[in-house]
Amino acid sequence: MQGFLYFCNNKRIICRRHFQVVKMKKSNKISTKQRIIDTAVDLFNKDGVQSITSRHIAKEMGISNGNLDYHFRNKEALLLAIYEQMRAEMSDSYRATDTVGGSFEQLHRLLLHLEAFQYKFRFFNLDVLEISRAYPQINRLLKHTIQIRKEQMADMLKQAITDGFFVQETEENIRQLLLSIRIIITFWLSHEELTSDSSSKKQKSNMSKHIWQLLRPYMTERGHLSYQALVEGSGV
Question: Matching Gene3D superfamilies, A to Z (predicted)?
Answer without folding.
Answer: Tetracycline Repressor, domain 2 (1.10.357.10)
